[in-house]
Write a structure and sequence with these properties.
Layout (H helix, E strand, L loop, with lengths): L5 H18 L3 E6 L7 H16 L3 E6 L2 H10 L6 E2 L2 E2 L3 H25 L4 E5 L6 E5 L8 E6 L2 H8 L3 E5 L1 E3 L5 E3 L2 H11 L4 E6 L17 E3 H9 L7 H13 L4 E6 L5 H6 L7 E4 L1
Parallel strand pairs: 1-2, 1-11, 2-8, 5-8, 11-13, 12-14
Antiparallel strand pairs: 3-4, 6-7, 9-10, 13-14
């Protein structure tokens, strides 16, 4: 790193210029959560990426979950997590814990860290301003919500005033119920409502792999039609199925491109947006 001269630094900036011009003033939604948030070094780098993008004029919206934090809080309260098809069964007591973990601890910690890194972040939950409205997805799952409406106006107001909205994925309805929302689903709906230029889904694997045991088999780009073929031949399986489905939903809602990237890779967001190398699997119309 000591051999990296000022000329080298200038060259890096010049090479990034076309990409900066492409995204300045445009909305980019980043979904961050789950196991990708556990490593503290990676978390610092993700916040540095978001702060950098905001400072050069990209309008970043950070949407986060926090499954491990919810599970930890449940354990402290003597409750055992239960999942059905990847969704957390959420009774009345559990939804209170979800609210505490996501809208409280995780949200404010991310806002604080992003501000320390030079960002200008404001934390919101999907309940604030009724940004995310939902209904019961399945009564057997309890207070797990299915998104019915996104009010993008509060988010746009913050972006237009130079803030980075950090949104936790809880929702509400007109009867006062509070819902736990899958983070990928919420991010896809928010990106669609904002007509975002890009949606970046951060996870803890390289992207979509042809052979899940071989990281070098990464599929760097696929269309919606190709994704359907990968469902049918078994390439996309398990937890990757709903993630890719959310990506497709976002594209059909007007998002230009969606990328699934490994949040553990240093500065993967900047690498994805401001270089020709990219990171992860890009899904396009």
């Amino acid at each position: 790193m000591n051999d990296f001269t000022n000329t080298d630094r200038a060259e890096v900036l010049i090479q990034a210029l076309p990409y900066i011009k492409k995204y300045v003033g445009k909305i980019v939604v980043v979904k961050y959560g789950g196991n990708a948030m556990i490593n503290e070094t990676s978390k610092q780098q993700v916040m540095e990426d978001i702060a950098l993008l905001s400072l050069i004029g990209v309008k970043v919206v950070l949407v986060h979950g926090g499954g491990p934090e919810i599970s930890d809080l449940m354990a402290k309260m003597g409750k055992k997590p239960e999942f059905v098809n990847g969704l957390r069964v959420t009774d009345k007591d559990t939804v209170d814990l979800v609210l505490m973990a996501l809208a409280g601890k995780v949200n404010k910690a991310l806002v604080n860290l992003l501000n320390v890194k030079g960002g200008n972040a404001i934390g919101l939950s999907g309940i604030d301003g009724q940004i995310i409205k939902a209904k019961f997805k399945d009564k057997a799952l309890g207070f797990v919500g299915e998104v019915t409406h996104i009010d993008a106006d509060p988010i746009i107001d913050l972006l237009d005033n130079g803030y980075t909205p950090v949104i936790s994925t809880v929702a509400c309805d007109d009867e006062g119920n509070i819902f736990n929302i899958n983070g990928d689903t919420a991010a896809a709906h928010i990106a669609g409502a904002l007509n975002a230029k890009r949606l970046i889904m951060m996870t803890d694997i390289n992207g979509v792999l042809k052979d899940r045991n071989n990281p070098s088999s990464l599929i760097r780009m696929m269309t919606i039609q190709e994704a359907t073929g990968y469902y049918e031949d078994g390439t996309i399986t398990g937890g990757m199925i709903p993630k890719v489905e959310c990506c497709i939903e976002a594209i059909r809602s007007g998002v230009d491109k969606v990328t699934i990237i490994d949040g553990r890779v240093p500065h993967s967001i900047v690498m994805e947006l401001l270089s020709n190398e990219g990171a992860g699997t890009m899904i396009v119309p």
